[in-house]
């Protein structure tokens, strides 16, 4: 490996830097013209000297975040650096530092809601994906199945389609309850439409946390108008982490419910005006008909947390809402697993 000496006397490992760039551009980097940043030199020097790369990796992560590079692409690029030195994976300290630097760069966007949802005060799905990457890399370094350490606890509080101030009040109450039960620094996110997800540890008392969460949500949503928009009881299920980070991010997309429900007719509510009746057609296919249920196939096994809607079947994950009450008969379609 060749090195050159910069004006300040520091070694510049140009050979390593070029191999790193070639590896990254050939496999993961999207735009070759924006790969180089002075921060890559500091990382390359630290790797070449076999010393702590945390500080340099933090600065590289921040530079990538400031220039609009996604955290996944930045992490893949870091992996390419270590592959070019003959090592399969970067050390966890370097990965964590790069993630923290990238997240620090996003802090300037918080006021626009890039990393924090303004209604709930919780992180967004993209930020949770960063924390998931840390969990997967830690499990890979320790050579353990990620599902043995963590699970995705999904919380669905929505009792129907709500808008405006009612939705904001519900979101704020649930966000505060989640921070109270799990801690403000705990990895969690809002997925929209009254759906939230928390990265929980398998050795935690998840059942106890869920019970506390339900009680706190009930207390915060005691107002009659807000309470009617909250499912009773709150639906919760736990999914083990998939094998890869990409699959986990995809799973978040599957269980998310963007607002408004794009392309999905919402159930008719008591405040809805009567649907117009066509003179020549009637029934579910009539124009303007919303109906009490969603069209078949919209919420299939990949999107519906309970999997198939056939009686006696269940979806992915371990359900923890064993304390269902009779006021939610639609869910009593089979035994809870």
UniProtKB/TrEMBL annotation:
Biased composition (Basic and acidic residues): 318-327
Disordered as annotated region, ranges: 258-337
Top-level taxon in the UniProt lineage: Bacteria
Protein name per its UniProtKB record: GGDEF domain-containing protein
Naturally occurring in which organism (per UniProt): Cellulomonas xiejunii
Lineage: Bacteria, Bacillati, Actinomycetota, Actinomycetes, Micrococcales
